[in-house]
Write a sequence for this structure.
């Protein structure tokens, strides 16, 4: 494997493993600090808040001082904060450090897509597919790794394991390609005047809304039908496994036939999978179809977003891509949770049907936005 790609994959895996592994340590944190679940949950929430607030400022800073410099500083900061987190004397300190670590994580997650596309311009679909696969792998690895570490070494070990991975990514990252940038304000001004770029971002929001909405529905529906939480967790491994395996292949396909074609196909598969599982009540076709749809859509659409970014806004565009992901996750979780809460009194089957019809329509909207990009001129691809 190219060492430059390894530096990016280790960095993105580091942040996803950390987030998913910590959830397994929350009960131990509550017991250690004589607190309860509602309190310790802030350790996860504040990390997300810190990330959301830092994506754009760090992207703008990276455009000014250098993306490689900001990425490497974020890796070191993330790792050092992890070390200090393991020594937290109380929850107040832990909350503050998690907020700061979220900001450092934004410098990793927010820059990796753009740096990947810039480092591998001729194979950006494939490289971004590798990134999507690494995210899926990190998400899957986190819970079992976190459970093992907590059982054998206690909750503090969750934070210590970040050190070797952060150091490895730092040592390998010196030869990454810089992203051009004009600063946050000018970058945003150019971005909002590039309609193809904005349409690609909106398609990203729709994709993550559909994906996270589906993730929320499956546990409610399956447990209502009598499946145990452990079996639900195993069933929900299917989509990330498919994304991890098929993501690079779909990305390579998009390099050959075009990002719009492959991402549109992904949106169609997502819509069909949502509607099929909603109408039939059978979850296995939905799990498989949504996993395949995610693999087809994610790398190709990310490549489309970054290829349509106005010149000299690549760093800000990478941050905006991460913001679109977070926005979509929030919309999907809120929408699916609200629909389930409003409809479950009619029965789980009815709530699952209606919710999937809506989520399938969101996937269709993503496809419409992709088709709309073809009808819009290539505005914004020149410096101003």
């Amino acid at each position: 494997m190219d060492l430059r790609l390894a530096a990016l994959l280790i960095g993105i895996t580091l942040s996803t493993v950390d987030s998913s592994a910590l959830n397994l340590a929350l009960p131990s944190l509550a017991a250690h600090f004589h607190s309860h679940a509602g309190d310790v949950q802030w350790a996860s929430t504040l990390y997300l808040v810190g990330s959301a607030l830092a994506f754009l400022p760090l992207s703008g800073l990276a455009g000014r001082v250098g993306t490689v410099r900001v990425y490497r500083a974020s890796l070191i900061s993330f790792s050092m904060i992890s070390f200090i987190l393991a020594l937290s004397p109380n929850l107040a300190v832990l909350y503050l450090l998690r907020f700061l670590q979220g900001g450092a994580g934004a410098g990793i997650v927010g820059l990796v897509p753009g740096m990947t596309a810039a480092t591998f311009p001729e194979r950006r679909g494939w490289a971004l597919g590798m990134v999507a696969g690494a995210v899926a792998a990190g998400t899957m690895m986190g819970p079992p790794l976190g459970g093992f570490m907590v059982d054998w070494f206690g909750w503090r070990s969750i934070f210590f394991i970040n050190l070797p991975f952060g150091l490895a990514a730092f040592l390998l990252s010196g030869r990454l390609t810089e992203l051009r940038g004009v600063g946050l304000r000018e970058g945003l001004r150019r971005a909002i005047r590039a309609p193809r770029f904005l349409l690609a971002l909106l398609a990203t929001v729709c994709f993550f809304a559909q994906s996270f909405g589906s993730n929320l529905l499956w546990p409610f529906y399956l447990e209502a039908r009598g499946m145990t939480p452990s079996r639900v967790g195993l069933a929900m491994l299917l989509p990330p496994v498919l994304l991890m395996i098929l993501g690079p292949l779909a990305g390579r396909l998009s390099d050959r036939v075009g990002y719009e074609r492959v991402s549109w196909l992904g949106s169609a598969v997502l819509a069909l999978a949502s509607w099929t599982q909603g109408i039939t009540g059978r979850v296995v076709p939905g799990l498989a179809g949504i996993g395949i749809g995610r693999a087809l859509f994610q790398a190709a659409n990310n490549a489309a977003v970054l290829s349509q970014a106005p010149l000299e806004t690549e760093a800000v565009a990478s941050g905006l891509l991460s913001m679109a992901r977070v926005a979509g996750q929030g919309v999907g979780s809120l929408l699916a949770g609200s629909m389930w809460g409003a409809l479950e009194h009619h029965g789980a089957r009815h709530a699952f049907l209606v919710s999937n019809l809506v989520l399938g329509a969101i996937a269709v909207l993503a496809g419409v936005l992709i088709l709309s990009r073809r009808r819009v001129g290539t505005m914004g691809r020149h410096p101003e």
